[in-house]
Amino acid sequence: MEPSLSSPGVALDLACGLGRHTLWLANRGWQVCAVDVSKVAIGKLNQAAHKLNVNLDLVVGDASEYNFDPVRFDLIVLFYHADRNLFPKLASALKPGGLLICKLSLRWDTDAGLTALGTEPLNRDELPSLFPKLHVLHHRERPVRDRGVVEFAGRKEFL
Fold first, then answer.
1. Is 102 a domain residue?
2. Where would you tag: which of 33, 35, 62, 85 has the fewest CB atoms within 10 A of its CB?
3. pTM of the entire structure?
4. What is the domain extent for residue 30?
């Protein structure tokens, strides 16, 4: 059976911040592991989870140091953390049929100054090439103020 957002499974919200996506998924029955480098953000997410009476697997740590078990997740959510070294690990951590949903900063105009977001923005049309083993379900790039944004959803092929 193909996973979808309507049939809960095991999810990873990487670089989750305050956990908006984590809480949304947990409220819908997903088992969610949330990872963020900020101890404060994870603490606030823990408080919100208790108020909502949902269980989460919370990890304080750098996304680049997270131990990605292969074939573990039905869904991985990644918003605004474009570490190219993570992308092969993300694809490996998806179960067959699993979904990756991400929204990342994108270099839109090569002449414009880049905003300081901590990681180098992706180039236009780069993201799908970084996930060659995922079937692209959605890919959209658009300008937003002085930078761009890429939205991507991909499904890991069944073996």
1. yes
2. 85
3. 0.89
4. 10-156
